[in-house]
Amino acid sequence: MPATVVILGGSFAGLHVAHALLKKNIKDLKVVLVSKNSHFYWNLASVRRIIPGVLKDEDIFKPIAQALKKYPESSYEFIVGTAEEADFDAKSVRITTASGESKSLSYDQLVIATGSHTAGGVPWKAEGSYEEVVDLLKATEEKVKAASHIVVAGAGSTGIEVAGELGYEFGKTKEIVLLSAGEKLINGDQIAGPAANELKKLNVKIQYNARVAETRPSAADPAKTEVVLANGETVTTDLYLPTMGLIPNTGYVPAKYLNENKLVEVEDTLRVKGTSNVWAAGDVISKPRAGFMITQKQAAGVSKNLELVLAGKEPIVAKPLPMDILACSVGRSRGAGRMNTFKLPSFGVYLAKGRTMGLNMMPGYIDGSVA
């Protein structure tokens, strides 16, 4: 009997799995890829795209249809739409297409790869359609250009990279402030000190123990934002860029399959706990944490296990990364990182990540060589 694999999400994990299955040319298999965005978004470079004149939209967006066109039309279907409700017992997902049509998809195997989003109207993740994300990037770029004082809130990897890009370009002409909720950057990770040192070289001011309680328009000048800290201090700025926290896009998943953080619970095989035919990868599980290389490895694991179960075999434990790597670019010439506990040189992080923000890997997701 023909089998249908529905993949929800057209970003790093979802497109990877789609390529992996379609390249195998498995007999009687139909792959249905559902993405709320018509374009593949290299959001790793979003922190650099907001700097005026450095990157163009076409550098970080590619049509997903282009990535799939080399496969036989009968082997796949691409739908621009949003998952609304999943019924794992009935093996169906209700989606709303870009045109507003409600549609029910039946599946034999389901892959959950819908990623996450960030709060605060910032473009670090694709929260809307292609057109909406492009508009948000351009609007943020214009605000960055006009601002003389910018506050970046959240001192995780994204916050460090945003502040680094701003400091590299504007450290001598604008005041850039990075707010860290704790006493150290990036939750006190080993790279906290090196990252702080690199930011200081770019004239970025770091304010520790500065947890944001609320933001509001300034009474004196509504065009400015008042950032109220938990300690009662208020910082007034031209532009407020939050980077705190990832919110998993799992609202359509039945609650019993989620943990207290709304993340999907999975087995070591990356199969969703309590199911026989639902799989998950990427930010929707954030296991061991959210990260590009972790997502890549998980997508490969899901792809391998789908291939096995479609052949009537048992899934295997998905192999994790052989080492824990954490790297942050800090502007367009430096960085901070580690490989397990081994410190990576600043220039080495630049060569590996900061030089291109990974854009050199983007073609692999379009031509399929990533899988």
Automatic annotation (TrEMBL):
SUPFAM superfamilies per record: FAD/NAD(P)-binding domain
Keyword annotations from UniProtKB, A to Z: FAD, Flavoprotein, Oxidoreductase
InterPro entries associated with the record: FAD/NAD-bd_sf, FAD/NAD-binding_dom
Lineage top rank: taxon: Eukaryota
Any GO molecular function: flavin adenine dinucleotide binding
Domain FAD/NAD(P)-binding intervals: 4-288
Record-linked Pfam families: Pyr_redox_2 (PF07992)
Record-level GO cellular component terms: cytoplasm
PANTHER family given in the database record: APOPTOSIS-INDUCING FACTOR 1, FERROPTOSIS SUPPRESSOR PROTEIN 1
Assigned protein family: Belongs to the FAD-dependent oxidoreductase family.
Full protein name: FAD/NAD(P)-binding domain-containing protein
Taxonomic classification: Eukaryota, Fungi, Dikarya, Ascomycota, Pezizomycotina
